[in-house]
Design the sequence.
């Protein structure tokens, strides 16, 4: 049975050495947290992830969910695990303590989500969506809805979902047909069908609170006509007790490639025209409000990618140390040469480094985005808040799309390291690949992310935010071009950044020239190019921080070696990892640039 | 009821332990620590007894200031306050000195029960609880798998060779926890937030007036022998028995 391991050392490096998470305690919102309490949080979360969630991962995958006449049963152990999870207060990590949240910074919440998602991706849907939904109600729902729902959702007593997709309305959300008709007392009657609703029905909680996008009478077509409604499975009386059922029915669950223990439901609202919904905000604001939730959810999907990559790395690394096969390359012709663990084969090491770079590089990317969110919400200076808000907006589609693809690629390579055994269920690594594939599809497909990045985020204000963000990276480059150890690699980062800027300018010109199809065609590779530059930047930043730490460690005690002090090995490895990325992955930026500059329209013109 | 309970930190059992080049001990630079699992059982039991009988749970430990984190974890689980005796590093302690330090804390705090893990999973000495009871001249019940309080007595089920033994011990008493005593809870996030404001008193060992000389002299640490290659038996039972006798000297 595969064992789930978490690299707490690297998590702490990103949290406290690369980003100054401890300094966030200077903001009133985080004043109750200290470095020591963060360490205890990480330690207890690790226990929960390793001892409670991870043992259910393979069980959940084998058993799947069971649909039984409108009810859905989750696999053995999930209910108990959910109770422990809720009891420990792990649902509303970053929410306001006034509303039953834990008030943790987003960057710490991201680290915890990474641990839990890596331990058991299927499990995390219910608590994750519950928090996402309660957060929307708390921020936008008005006092009445807030008082009824938020605390009970944050405590885990009630769960939540987000209901956007309908059979004819997937990526094109604006085609949703579910209707909401005013009753006259401020409430609405909801009628319609939603599909692909994660945690839409389950046996973990006594109530499920759906957030439903629906169309009011005479609303304009498209997304502008959508409004957002709170639709409980069981109605809630004004004193907070449960009332009668609300005419919401689960009509089936999907059989999926992965995340088997997550119930993906079809829901039917108002079969008997007796389903009440309570509007969030005003009519026509549905899409805007849903985006509140979507942006956070997109970062979480990126974290799903990085957690898959990191889990895959741990499995592949353990396996490569244990599996004996073949001899050292120099003895290839002598049949009697000693057999070696495959970690000694250079090609296996190359694969392991690739998996590792996706895991640790994307971890750095996800935590940085969350750190920007913390600064955007809490920095006292409004211009600083605005700056980080814009950086966060730019990074969000990259985190989601690049992170999910890195996770899939890492899982693929980790299976390859396992050879034939990787294809066998028992080794657990194929499950990672099946579970992570969905991440490139849901919460807006990766193409939607790429369009969002290019057409909305980069293009906005004539490239104003893009330029500011490039300035941030250039600042790092200028400061470190003369670095004694990594100067050459910094120079290569500068070239990669140049490739990104050239690609951006080229696509800007194409758009101005009216060839919209062309930009749509290459927007995904563009996002990958952008992601490579962000990764190169963050990994080199890690290498330089680690190098400083290494030098001061050795200044304290020059006799320390890789063998005598784990941190010497850790910091040294950061340099290797950055170099690996710079020389083995980052050169791809050149290729993507020439593809973008080729103006080749074959895919558009071909007869398909 | 007032309970003193220990929270020892141990080297992370998943970490690769390396010896110092002079074999005087293990390399501790950059080493990760975890709470001793048997202490976690003891803390859990203290909290459960406290839930039923009220009173106070005081967590005690010895070591450098970093050990605060181990105590803080117990406070996050629900204990009320902590005491850390500082001024001694791990290699400056043996079971006897630890027992005498705890005896001194006992005299200051006068608890009804002193709960400890039956042993720490690094040194595996399994001596502190027994020595402590002896120094205090109070009853002891080691390897507890169940603890009940009846009036002024603790009824303790002990895991012994070949079964369970149930004994009554008058309080105050020393009880050491076995793994099957309970399943330790995880600290909750609200618990972790609350723990920040709970007090941990640091007491310098020198102020306790204890002789800190060690009774155990460490001669050298050795790595365990690396395992040799296996042997395949093809000749059946007789050959196996023969080799067990002549080569392995196992029978």
Sequence:
């Amino acid at each position: 049975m595969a064992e789930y391991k978490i690299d707490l050392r690297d998590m702490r490096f990103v949290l406290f050495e690369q980003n100054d998470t401890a300094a966030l305690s200077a903001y009133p919102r985080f004043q109750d947290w200290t470095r020591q309490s963060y360490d205890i949080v990480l330690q207890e979360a690790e226990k929960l992830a390793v001892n409670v969630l991870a043992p259910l991962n393979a069980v959940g995958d084998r058993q799947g969910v069971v649909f039984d006449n409108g009810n859905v049963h989750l696999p053995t152990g999930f209910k108990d695990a959910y109770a422990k999870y809720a009891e420990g207060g792990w649902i509303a990590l970053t929410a306001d303590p006034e509303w039953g949240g834990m008030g943790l910074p987003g960057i710490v919440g991201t680290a915890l989500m990474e641990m839990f998602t890596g331990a058991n991706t299927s499990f995390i849907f219910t608590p994750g969506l519950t928090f996402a939904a309660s957060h929307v109600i708390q921020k936008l729902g008005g006092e009445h809805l807030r008082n009824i729902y938020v605390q009970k959702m944050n405590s885990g007593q009630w769960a939540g979902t987000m209901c956007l997709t309908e059979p004819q309305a997937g990526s094109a959300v604006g085609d949703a047909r579910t209707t909401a008709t005013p009753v006259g007392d401020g409430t609405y009657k909801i009628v319609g069908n939603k599909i692909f609703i994660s945690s839409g029905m389950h046996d973990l909680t006594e109530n499920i609170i759906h957030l439903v996008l629906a169309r009011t009478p005479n609303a304009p077509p498209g997304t502008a006509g959508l409004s957002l409604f709170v639709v409980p499975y069981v109605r809630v009386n004004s004193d907070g007790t449960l009332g009668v059922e609300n005419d919401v029915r689960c009509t089936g669950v999907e059989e999926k490639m992965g995340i088997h223990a997550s119930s993906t439901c079809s829901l039917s609202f108002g079969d008997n025209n007796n389903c009440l919904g309570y509007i969030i905000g005003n009519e026509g604001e549905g899409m805007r409000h849903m985006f509140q939730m979507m942006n956070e959810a997109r970062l979480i999907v990126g974290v799903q990618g990085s957690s898959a990559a990191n889990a895959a790395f741990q499995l592949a690394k353990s396996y490569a140390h244990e599996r004996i096969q073949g001899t050292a390359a120099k003895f290839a012709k002598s049949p009697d040469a000693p057999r070696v663990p495959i970690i000694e084969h250079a090609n296996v090491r190359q694969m392991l480094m690739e998996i590792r770079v996706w895991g640790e590089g994307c971890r750095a990317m996800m935590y940085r985005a969350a750190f920007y969110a913390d600064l955007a919400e809490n920095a006292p200076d409004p211009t600083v808040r605005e700056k980080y808000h814009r950086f966060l907006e730019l990074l969000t589609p990259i985190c989601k799309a690049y992170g999910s693809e890195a996770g899939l690629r890492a899982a693929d390579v980790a299976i390859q390291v396992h050879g034939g055994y990787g294809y066998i269920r028992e080794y657990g690594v194929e499950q990672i690949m099946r579970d992570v594939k969905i991440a490139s599809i849901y919460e807006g497909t990766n193409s939607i992310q790429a369009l969002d990045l290019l057409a909305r985020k980069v293009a906005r204000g004539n490239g104003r935010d893009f330029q500011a963000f490039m300035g941030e990276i250039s600042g790092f480059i200028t400061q470190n071009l003369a670095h004694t150890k990594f100067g050459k690699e910094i120079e290569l980062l500068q070239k990669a950044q140049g490739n990104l800027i050239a690609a951006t300018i080229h696509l800007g010109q194409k758009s101005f020239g009216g060839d919209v199809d062309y930009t749509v065609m290459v927007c995904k590779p563009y996002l990958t190019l952008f992601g490579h530059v962000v990764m190169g930047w963050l990994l080199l930043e890690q290498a330089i921080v680690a190098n400083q730490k290494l030098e001061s460690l050795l200044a304290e005690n020059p006799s320390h070696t890789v063998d005598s002090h784990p941190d010497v090995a850790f910091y040294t490895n950061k340099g290797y990892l950055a170099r690996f990325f710079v020389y083995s992955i980052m050169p791809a930026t050149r290729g993507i640039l020439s593809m973008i500059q080729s103006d080749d329209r074959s895919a558009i013109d071909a007869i398909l | 009821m007032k309970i003193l309970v220990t929270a020892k930190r141990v080297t992370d059992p998943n970490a690769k332990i390396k010896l110092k080049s002079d074999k005087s001990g293990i390399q501790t630079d950059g080493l990760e620590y975890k709470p001793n699992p048997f202490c976690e059982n003891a803390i859990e039991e203290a909290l459960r007894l406290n839930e039923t009988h009220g009173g106070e749970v005081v967590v005690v430990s010895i070591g450098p200031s970093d050990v605060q984190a181990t105590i803080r974890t117990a406070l996050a689980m629900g204990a009320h306050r902590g005491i850390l005796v500082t001024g001694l590093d791990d290699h400056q302690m043996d079971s006897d000195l630890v027992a005498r330090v705890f005896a001194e804390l006992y005299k200051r705090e006068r608890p009804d029960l002193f709960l400890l893990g039956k042993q720490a999973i690094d040194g595996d000495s399994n001596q502190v609880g027994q020595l402590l009871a002896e120094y205090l001249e109070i009853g002891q019940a080691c390897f507890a798998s169940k603890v009940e309080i009846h009036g002024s007595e603790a009824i303790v089920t002990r895991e012994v060779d070949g079964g369970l033994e149930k004994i009554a011990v008058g309080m105050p008493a020393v009880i050491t926890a076995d793994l099957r005593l309970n399943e330790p809870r995880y600290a909750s996030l609200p618990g972790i937030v609350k723990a920040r404001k709970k007090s941990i008193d640091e007491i310098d060992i020198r102020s306790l007036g204890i002789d800190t000389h060690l009774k155990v002299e460490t001669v050298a640490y050795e790595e365990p022998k690396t395992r040799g290659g296996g042997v395949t038996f093809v000749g059946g039972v007789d050959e196996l028995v023969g080799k067990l006798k002549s080569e392995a000297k196992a029978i």
